[in-house]
Amino acid sequence: MPLLMRDGKVVKRLEGGRRIVLGLGDGQIDVAEERLEPGDWVVFHTDGVTEARDADGTFYGVERLTDQLRRSAAAGHSAPETLRRVVHEVLDHQHGQLQDDATLLVAQWATRKEEALRAAPR
After folding, report:
1. What span, in angstroms and rounded, lies between the C-alpha atoms of 54 and 117?
2. 10 Å Cβ neighbour count for 10?
3. By three-state DSSP, how is residue 9 classified?
4. How far apart are CA 24 and CA 36, in angstroms?
5. Phi, psi of 117 (to 5 degrees)
6. CA proximity to 106, closest of 82, 89, 77
7. φ/ψ (deg, to 5) at 79
8. How far apart are the C-alpha atoms of 23 and 27, rounded to whole Å?
9. What is the DSSP secondary-structure string of 37-73?
10. 5 vs 100, residue with greater confidence
11. Is the C-alpha dihedral spanning 78, 58, 2, 45 positive or negative?
12. Lower CB density within 10 Å: C or N end of the chain?
């Protein structure tokens, strides 16, 4: 389930709008709505992220994902840097061996402050 981050914290799991795997079923889609605010991040992930296992079989888990997102936001990291950090942490958890597809997408409602930083000369 996607996660909604607001003000650097995961505030809820977005449970609506789910459907079965693409290409299966009758084509019906449940639509859900969520009111977003400037600065919000929506974090989409496959089970290959949360179900990544270490050598002892322990899942990476939603709690660890949520904690990494919170720590990255608290450190002021951008969405792309947060994404990079989560990917490296998941790979480290599995000792570099992916066992399943692992897809992660961070969609961010950029604020004027972030847009200005991107436009600033380097």
Report:
1. 38
2. 19
3. strand
4. 30
5. -65, -40
6. 82
7. -60, -45
8. 8
9. -TT-EEEEE-HHHHT-B-TT--B-HHHHHHHHHHHHH
10. 5
11. positive
12. C
